[in-house]
Amino acid sequence: MYDLTSQPVNMINSSPPLLHHYGELARLPPQVPTPERNDLPDGTVLMEEYGQLPLIDLSCLSSTNEKVRLACADAICRASSEWGFFQVVNHGISPELIRNMRREQVKLFQTPFDKKATCGVLNNSYRWGTPTATCPKQFSWSEAFHIPISKVFEQACYGEFSSLREVMVEFAAAMSKLARLLAGVLAENVGHPRGVFESTCQESNCFLRLNRYPACPISSEISGLVPHTDSDYLTILSQDEVGGLQLMKDSKWVAVKPNPDALIVNIGDLSQVRLNF
User: Which domains are delineated in the chain?
Assistant: First the structure.
C-alpha cells in the first residue's frame, strides 16, 4: 500500500557491471557527461524559481491546540492534492537512525556485484538496471534492494551482514509508524476513520527500498530512474545531500533541493483508489 524508501545517491564511486542482457545499450559509444550537460535536463526549473515544495512540521499533529492540529492536517491534504509531494520535519525519526541506515547501506552497496547478486541477502531482492530496456531512455542506471517489511525481521535474510539487521528493523518500524500516521490523516480527510488501513495494510504489502544511482559512463540519455509515477499508496523518501530528485509540477520538471532535516512524501496512484471506495 505504500513504499518505505531510503535513497542515498552517488555515495561511492564504482563502475556498474554491464551484463549480457543489456544488449545494445552496452555498445553505445562511451560518453562521460560533462557537468554542464549533467546538471539538469532541458526545461527543468529550480525549486527556487518555481516555489518552495511544501514543508510541514508534523509535531503540530500532536499539539494541544485543536486549531493547530487541524491546520497541519489541512496542509498535508492540500499539498497532497496540489503537489502530490511534500516535505516533513519533526517526523519522529532521529537523524542518528538515518545516518546509521545510510552507513549500513554504503557498506552493502560496496560489496562486489557478483556477491550482491548471488548471496541472497535481503530476501534475494537485489536488482541492477532495467533488463527489459530496448533503448537508453527506458533504462534506469541504478541498483536497489526492494524488500517486503515482513522479511526485514528475519535473521536468515541478512546472512553475513549482521550489523545491517538491527538498523533495518529499527528503521522499518519507524518509517512504518510515520507512514500510518500520514495515511490516517489522508483517510480522515475524505471521511474515513484514521484506522481504516489497520486491517488492510499488511506488512507483506509494504516495502523498504535501498537505492543507489551512480554516474553513468555510457550515455547522457540514461537516467538514474526513468520518469514514472509511484503505483503504491505513498512513498517516504530520505534524500541525501547529493540531490538529483526531480518532480513534475504543471508540466514542468522541478529540481528538489535536498533538506537534511526533512523527509519527502510522495502520494502514489493507489491513494485515489483506496480513499474513494
Answer: 2-11+54-274 (2.60.120.330)
Per the DSSP assignment, residues forming a β-bridge with 124 are none
How far the first Cα of the chain sits from its last, in Å, is: 15
Q: Are residues 164 and 158 in contact, defined by beta-carbon separation less than 8 angstroms?
A: yes
- Edge-to-edge order in the sheet of strand 85-89: 55-57, 85-89, 263-267, 234-239, 2-7, 206-212, 143-148, 126-128
- Report residues of the chain scoring pLDDT below 70: 1-51, 190-204, 219-221, 228, 231, 269-277
| Cα-based distances in Å from 29 to 40, 93, 189, 221 | 22, 44, 52, 12
pLDDT at residue 203, as a whole number: 67
Of 116, 133, 101, nearest to 209 by C-alpha is: 101
Element (H, E) at 41: none
**pTM score over 0.85:** no
Q: Helix 162-189 to helix 66-82 angle, to the nearest 10 degrees?
A: 100
pLDDT digits (tens, 9 = 90+) for 124-144: 999 888 777 777 777 888 899
Q: Write down the pLDDT at residue 30.
A: 45
Cβ atoms within 10 Å, residue 250:
6
pLDDT at 107: 92
Q: At what angle do helices 162-189 and 95-109 cross, to 10 degrees?
A: 130
The Cα 62–Cα 69 span in angstroms is: 7
d(CA 26, CA 19): 8
